[in-house]
Amino acid sequence: MDFLIFQAPILMVQATLDGILLGILFALIAYGMALQWGVMNIINIAQGDLVILGGYIAYSMYLAGIHPGWGVIVSPVIMFFVGWGLYKLVINKVVDRDLFISILATFGIAIVFQQLMNFIFGADVVVAQSEYGTTMLFDNSVTLPNSKIFSAFISLLYAVVLVIYMKKSKLGRAIRATAQNARAAKILGVDTEKVYAATFGINAALCGVAGALIAITFTLHPYVGLPYTVRSFMIVIVAGLGNLPAVAISGMGLGVFEEFADYILGTEFRIGSVFMLLVFILVYRRFKLSKKREYLK
Amino acid sequence: MNKLAKLFITFVSAITLALASISSSFAKVEDGMIVLGSAISLTGKYSSNGVHTQNGYNLAVDRINKMGGVKVGGKSYKFEIIYYDDESNPKRAAQLAERLIKQDGVHYMLGPYSSGLTKAIAPVTEKYKIPMVEANGASRSLFTKGYKYLFAVLSPANQYLEVAIDLAVEKNGGKPVNIAMAFEQDAFSQDVRLGILDAAKRTGSKITIDDKLPKELNDMAATLAKVKATKPDVLVVSGHTKGALTAIRQISEMKVDVPMLAMTHCDAAKLSKQHGKKAEYALCASQWHKNLSYKDKYFGTGKKYDKDFKKEFGYAPPYQSAESSAALLVFKDAFERANSFDRDKVRDALKATEMQTFYGNIKFGPGGQNTAKPMILFQVRCKGDTCENKVVAPTKWASDKFFHPIPPWSERG
Fold this sequence. Notes:
The complex is a heterodimer. Chain A is mostly helical. Chain A has one domain: Orthogonal Bundle (ABC transporter involved in vitamin B12 uptake, BtuC), CATH 1.10.3470. Chain A is 75% helix and 3% strand. The termini of chain A are far apart. Chain B is an alpha/beta fold. Chain B is built from 12 helices and 18 strands. Chain B has helices at 2-21, 47-66, 90-103, 115-127, 162-171, 187-203, 221-230, 240-253, 271-274, 302-313, 319-338, 343-351; strands spanning 29-30, 33-40, 70-72, 75-85, 108-110, 132-134, 150-152, 178-184, 206-213, 234-238, 261-263, 283-286, 295-296, 300-301, 354-357, 360-363, 376-383, 386-393. In chain B, strands 1, 2, 3, 4, 5, 6 and 7 form a 7-stranded mixed beta sheet that branches. Chain B has a 7-stranded mixed beta sheet with strand order 9-8-10-11-12-17-18, sandwiched between helices. A two-stranded antiparallel ribbon of chain B has the order 13-14. In chain B, a hairpin with a 2-residue loop joins strand 1 and strand 2. The longest helix of chain B is centred in the first third of the chain and has 20 residues, at 2-21. In chain B, 55% of the residues are buried. The A-B interface holds A 2, 4, 8, 10-11, 14-15, 18, 22, 100, 115, 118, 122-127, 129, 134, 136, 140-141, 143, 145, 147, 218-219, 221-224, 226-227, 259, 262-263, 266-268, 270-271 and B 1, 43-49, 182, 185, 211-214, 216-219, 221-223, 225-226, 228-230, 240-242, 245-246, 249-250, 253-255, 269-270, 274-276.
């Protein structure tokens, strides 16, 4: 136990802001996962690896002398086609099978992606430099890297654009219709095959954005994808499918919770405490459901 | 899932057993060749350091073979190494060690890359009484298990940053210091941590922050905010290359001012290249540096080794390669002193090793660790935009003076 945070309350501000900025980025990845989970009923284990691949695209730009910040535009475009191709190659064969098959398939994709990235980019940990500088608040006692602020801003921007697109565009409506009832949508003339491919592509594109942001805020390595998959999975579990504000709030909430756990319980309990929270939420939900059932009886 | 996994495990174990039971009686010293075996990470997460290790082994094999080979019983033998790719996976490494010993009939082993994989292989080599000289497993727990056939040419992990604490105390006018530390939760980094705890006890220093970073963590912002709030005299970080890169990135972004920053894996992470000026003044533990004044007849000095290695492989040798080359020199020396291929005689000769190589002095302690070579510290220093690692401790080899304290970020351009 460490009570430094209570002795220096300014740390609470730091922890909250760090948590929110981190959470928004995770929420973006989680939203992609929720989207294709909802539409296609696929839990994508390769989610984190798509993120890292997106990061490597930004890193390649950085190596070529282009500012890695542009990765947030280039990376999603490339990743959309990667996602589309992946759907045509593998996912379309498992999309209407049970969950276990799709988990196995995406797990396989994850391994192939890891090895490919290792083969192409090497096993060294790499970073791309954005040189965005730092924002200092409260007489320098709270410092926020501008790269994190940039990440949060871009994540929000993409989320908003996506929400509008899903509401207004034809494809967006088709995606939502398919999510509600794939068979009915098909009868009414929606090309569900195309909708699935587009959904998987959009998810990969979101991963591409997140990856480019991770390249400039954290580090890249071919084998660090899984923690991102796990994190987005947890956010989706807490928030539910197809509810963007809930995903964003749950992302930020988990981010802040994690930061506070770090200060109060210690860094070694940081990730463990998030899992504890998840268990608690699941048990609580079950409890509430069972109560509801009792009323019904 | 469960059924399938069980089936898979049964299948793999059946194959392993089948392979293991094809035992061979021939000793692997034939046609003037001494065959060594090594499981090495050519793919997977350790593949870059695995390749550094392999290059180090290969360079030494070439050099020794070219310069007359190994003389045993008046006859000259050449080294040859059988490699298998362990995919950076401890289970696989242990299987491959069995295969090398049982199927390929290897009687002498070279170590893999990393403490974790060495830990997986050591019980196997021990079981079959196969002498193993390893160059890349520094974890202290390797040397406390009473292994009799394990010999490490490198300094154990707990020695990595102890010197840094002594240095901090010295700069503080001999008075105890406040230490903040963050270590990844893995065998190696936690051993480095134990070394710091010892040093803190010895010098009466106080540990103000003691964070254990989860393996999957890539964000140290909370730890660094605590550092900012408590203002320690020295910050110690160890978490492999990811830890080193994350620490420098976030220390520079959060403008954390500490008088002294000590780390591990700076050269493996190519800190001075990837972070440039942001990494300046970081103090790094290293097993070896080319400027040290050790010598041997095969590679000459460290500088000569550096040149030869660059010529052969096209990049400057990291210490992982240098220590791997040294392992071969140790084997050669032991074979010649044993003057026999009897495994126990070779093992006894290894035990009695006392020699100097370009990499450093080598003498094995009771647990098999090298007790004759101190760790060195270098500091990242920049001239303009090019940054280099300069040796600053121990004073005997220091090419530059240790720069202390680190200027605050507000004064750094």
